[in-house]
Amino acid sequence: MSANTTRAKAIREITASSAVDGQLSEPLSEIWATDVFDLATMEEALSKNAFKAMKKTVQTGAPLDAAVADVVAAAMKDWALAKGAKFFSHIFFPMTNITAEKHDGFIVTNPEGKAITEFTGSVLIKGEPDGSSFPNGSLRMTNAARGYTAWDPTSPAYVMHTPNGATLMIPSVFMSWTGEALDKKIPLLRSNAAMDRAARRVLSLMGEVEIETLNSSCGAEQEYFLVDAHFANNRPDLLLAGRTVFGAAPPKGQEFDDHYFGAIPARVQVFMQDFEDKLYRLGIPAKTHHNEVAPGQFEIAPYFEAANVAADHQQLMMTVMKSTAKEHGFLCLLHEKPFAGVNGSGKHVNWSVGNATQGNLFDPGSTPHDNLNFLIFCGAVIRGVHLFGPLLRAVVASAGNDHRLGANEAPPAIMSVYLGDQLESVFADIKNGVTSASSDGGLMDLGLSQILPFERDPGDRNRTSPFAFTGNRFEFRAVGSGQSVSGPLVAMNTILADSLDWVADRLEVELAGTDQLAVAVATVLQEIMELHGSVIFGGDGYAEAWHVEAAERGLRNIPTTAEALPELMTPVVQELFERTEVLSRAELESRYEVYAEQYILSIGVEAALAAELARTVVYPAAMGYAADLARTLETGEQLGVAFDIGTLKSVAGTLDSMMVKVAALEEALETHLFDDTATHMAYCADTVVPLMSEIRTAADALELCVADEYWPLPKYREMLYIR
Ligand code: ADP
Ligand code: MG
Fold first, then answer.
1. Quick check: 698 and 240 in contact, CB under 8 A?
2. What is the whole-number distance in angstroms between the Cα of residue 218 and the centre of ligand 1?
3. Which of 287, 494, 581, 602 is most buried, taking the most CB atoms under 10 A from its CB?
4. Best substitution site from 192, 221, 261 to test ligand 1's pocket, by max atoms within 8 Å of Cβ?
C-alpha cells in the first residue's frame, strides 16, 4: 500500500538527503566567546581606568561614567569593525517572548563625501526605536510612540554573524518616554536589586559584616522537538501555530521509554554540534544535551550564569537554535505541546541567589540544621511560594503551557515546594521546636567491588513537583519551553525580596529580646512553618489524591491561562510589586493586558487553523475516500457482491459531526464583543478550546480510518520517527 503522494515524496526526499555530513568540531579554546566583547576583550582594548570602571559595573551594577562610555564605545566599534560588522543594534526584549532589534550603520559621510565610521558613547547608551508597534498594554497611546532603548553594560555585547553580514548587538532595556518599563529586562534588573536590598538587611541582622552585592543566578534546561522540514512544510499548523492541531497518536509512542537518554540520532548530533559551536562563539556555555522522553524530543542546558545574562542568553539561544535547525533541514519546535499524546516541552528554571562573601545562600552545606543563613533564605522561599502561588502560576501561563500544566506529564497547576527528605525533616523539627542533627544520604555501596562507593545525595528527586529544591538551588519546573525565563525570575526574585524584608522585620523584633541569634532565627522559622508549612509537599503531584489534599490545605489549582492571568491584577500581587519597587501598578497592568492579548491571539490563530484545515484538507481527503468506497459498493451491488459498508458509514458519520463542529467554531470566532479582557479569555478557554478539541477528536478518528493514500497531512509516526 502506498502512502499519500505528498507524504511519500517527503519521505523519499528525507531518506535521500539524510546522509550525515558532520564537520570536525573546532577546539573550545579557539571558539569560546570569540564574538563577545567580554571582560577579557575589554581588558586588552581599554585603558586601565576604563577597564576598572567597566569591571565594577559588570560585577556590581555600579553606575558608569559618561566619559568611560565614550572610551568603551570607541573600543567596541573598532573590535566590531575588525570582525566585519558594518551595523550595530540595540537588542531588547519587549513584553512578548521575542527579541527586537533595530539596525543602524556605523557609517557617516563627511563633506567630501567620504565614508567614515562613527560610534560615540551617547549612541551606545541610548537608542530610539519607533516603539509604537511593540505591545505596550496601553502604557502609551499610539500617538505617543516615543520609546528608548538604553545600553545594559552588565550583559556583554557581541557580534552576530548571519548570511547577510555581521552586526554588533548591544543588550538593552526598553522604556517609554515617561520612563515606564516596556520590556522584560527592566523588571528583572529591578527584582534583582530588590532581592539584594532585602538580602543585605537580613544578612547584616545575621551578624555578617562584609556583604558584597547579591545576584540571582539562572540555569535553564530547554526542551525542544526537531521535525524534518519536508514534513513540517506540509503541516500548516506546525508552521503557523508551532503545534499540530490534528494528528492521531501512533501505535508506538513513548511507552517503551526507549528514547529518553537513548543514543542521539546521527543527524541530530551533527545539528547539536553545529548549534553548540555557535553558542560557544557567542559565549553561551552549553553544558549538557540528551534525548528527551518523547521521540524526536531533545534537551539542552547551558551552565548557569547571572540571571540577567542567562535571560539574554536564553533568548539568543532560542534564536540560534531555530536558525541552525533550519540550516540542517529541521523545524525546531519550542512550543509546549507540539504533539498531543506525547510528552510536551518545558523549561526548568534553576535559580539561586548569592554573592562573593556569603556564597550561594541556597547551599545547605553538610549540616543544614545549623546553617542559619541557609535556613533563613530557604524559609523565605517557602513563605513566598505559599503566599504567591497564584502569581507563580500566572507567570508561566500561556496558551501552549495550558496543555502541559496539570496534564500528568508536567507539574500540576498547584504550586507547592519539594524539599527532599533531609530538609523536610529539618523543617519539621523546626516546626516542632526540636533540634536534631540532619541525616545525610550516607554512602551508596552496591556491594560490587569494581564500582567505587560514592556519597549519596541527602534526598531523592521528585519529578512531579513544580518547585523543587535540588541540592543548592530551586528548580521551577512549570515554565514553558517557549517562554522567556525573565517573568519567572522576576517573580522568584520579587517574592524572595518581599519575604526577606518580612524576615528582617521579624528578626529585628526578636533580636531586641534576645542576644542569641539562633534563638531569634528559630522563632522566626517556626512562625514561617506555622503559617506557610502547608506549601511543602513531598508526595506524588500527579496523583488525584493530591488535588483533594491541596484543596484542603488551601493551595489553589488554577488550570488555565484564562484563570491564571487575572491573578496578576489582585491587590496582593499589585502591592507586592509596588512595595518591592519592581513594577508600578500601570506597568503590571500593561503586562496583564499584553499576556492576555497574546493568549487570545494564539487561541484565535489555532482555532482559525483548525477550522480551515478541517474544511479544506481533512474534509476533502475523507470525502474522496468515501466517494471511492461508495463507487466500489455500487459496483459490488451491480455484480451481486456485498461489500462491508461499515467503514463508509463511519467515515460519513464522523465527517458529518466534524463539520457541524467546524460550523459552530466558525460562528464562535465571529463573536467579538466582550466586556473586558478576562471575559474574552474565559470565552476562549470555555467555548473556543472545547470546540477545537471536539473537531480534533473527529479528525483524528478519520485519520485512523481513511485509507493511508488519501491522507495528505504527515502523520505523527512519520514526523516523530523519520529523520
Ligand atoms: P537536571 O536535568 O538533573 O535537573 P541539568 O544538569 O540538566 O540537571 O541542569 C541543571 C541546571 O541547573 C544547569 O543549567 C546548571 O548549570 C544549573 N545549576 C546548577 N547549579 C546551580 C545554581 N547554584 N544556581 C542556578 N543554577 C544552577
Ligand atoms: Mg532539571
1. no
2. 8
3. 494
4. 221
Distance between CA atoms of 525 and 529, rounded to whole angstroms?
A: 6
| Least-confidence region, from 179-183, 368-372, 702-706 | 368-372
Give the helix, strand, coil percentages of the chain, each rounded to 5.
50, 15, 35
Q: What angle do CA 528, 537, 423 make, to 5 degrees?
A: 65
Which residues are CB-neighbours of 224 under 8 A, at least 6 positions away?
A: 297, 298, 299, 300, 321, 332, 333, 334, 345, 481
Cβ neighbors of 76 (< 8 A, separation 6 or more) are 37, 119, 124, 157, 168
Distances (CA, A) of 458 to 365, 366, 420, 537: 11, 9, 8, 17
- Mutual orientation of helices 486-513 and 307-327 as an angle, nearest 10°? 160
Please report, as a single letter, which amino acid is at residue 508: E
Atom of ligand 1 nearest to the CA of 363: 23
Residue 74: Cβ within 10 Å count: 18
pLDDT digits (tens, 9 = 90+) for 695-710: 999 999 999 999 999 9
Pocket test for ligand 1, best of 279, 350, 363, 492 (most atoms within 8 A of CB): 350
- Cell numbers placing 143: 500617538
The whole model's pTM is what? Answer: 0.94
Q: Return the best residue to mutate from 378, 467, 473 for the ligand 1 pocket (most ligand atoms within 8 A of CB).
A: 473
- For ligand 1, atom 11, the nearest C-alpha belongs to 219
Half-sphere exposure of 423 (CA within 13 A, CB side): 33
pLDDT tens-digit series, residues 277-314: 999 999 999 998 888 878 899 999 999 999 999 999 99
CA distance 206 to 212: 15
Scanning the structure block, which residue is given the C-alpha cell 522584560?
A: 184
With 0-12 CB in 10 A as exposed, 13-18 as middle and 19+ as buried, what is 309? Answer: buried
CA atoms within 13 A on the CB side of 144: 11
Enumerate the H helices of 482-556 as residue ranges. 486-513, 517-532, 544-553
- CA angle (264, 266, 270) in 5-degree steps: 100
* 303 CA to centre of ligand 1 in angstroms: 7
**Long-range Cβ contacts of 253-257 (<8 Å, 24+ apart):** 253/294, 253/295, 253/341, 253/342, 254/293, 254/294, 254/295, 254/342, 254/343, 257/293
Q: Which atom of ligand 1 is nearest to the CA of 220?
A: 14
593 contacts 681 by C-beta, under 8 angstroms: no
Q: Determine whether the shortest distance from the Cβ of 314 to ligand 1 is under 6 A.
A: no
Q: Is 317 in the pocket of ligand 1 (CB under 6 A)?
A: no
Query: So what's the pLDDT on residue 144?
Result: 56
Cβ of 462 less than 6 Å from ligand 1: no
Domains, in order of start, for the chain: 32-183 (3.10.20.70)
C-beta 303 within 6 A of ligand 1: yes
User: Which residue type is seen at 655?
Assistant: L
Short-list 98, 103, 280, 93, CA closest to 171: 93
| Residue 352 CB less than 6 A away from ligand 1 | yes
Cα–Cα–Cα angle for 534, 410, 426, rounded to 5 degrees:
30
